[in-house]
UniProtKB/TrEMBL annotation:
Signal sequence bounds: none
Superkingdom field: Eukaryota
UniProt-recorded name of the protein: PI-PLC X domain-containing protein At5g67130
UniProt record, GO biological process: lipid metabolic process
The organism of origin for this protein: Olea europaea subsp. europaea
UniProt xrefs under Pfam families: PI-PLC_cat (PF26178)
InterPro entries for the chain: PI-PLC_domain, PLC-like_Pdiesterase_TIM-brl
Gene Ontology MF: a single term: phosphoric diester hydrolase activity
Length: 110
């Protein structure tokens, strides 16, 4: 399973690092692509920012690194904490991209 690096170094704008113990992100023989972010030390107050725009902005970056494949699994600390749509919006975005190539699943229903 290809997986994005977790910990404080895992969410860097423009970069999508691979976890050392995972398959490389562009390994197309693996069907599960995981985007995850867990701080090295969980801080509930910071999760609001990191689980919002920062997480959403990582999706296209990791898509490119993962051989143009959208993640099909999202994991974060404090999934209910965000400024905006958070992990739910990230999941909605990914579902839309995976189902119909749109940036949210609701567009696929039309």
């Amino acid at each position: 399973m290809p997986s994005q690096q977790d910990g404080d170094g895992g969410m860097k704008a423009g970069s999508c690092f691979n976890r050392a113990e995972s398959s490389v992100l562009n390994d197309t023989s693996k069907s599960l692509v995981l985007v995850n972010y867990f701080r090295s030390v969980p801080i509930k107050l910071l999760a609001c920012v990191q689980n919002s725009g920062d997480l959403i902005n990582m999706l296209p970056t990791c898509h490119d690194v993962a051989a143009n494949r959208w993640a099909n699994f999202v994991a974060v600390d404090f999934y209910k904490r965000s400024e905006g749509g958070g992990s739910f919006q990230a999941t909605d975005t990914l579902n839309g991209e995976l189902l119909c190539g749109c940036n949210n699943v609701h567009t696929c229903c039309k």
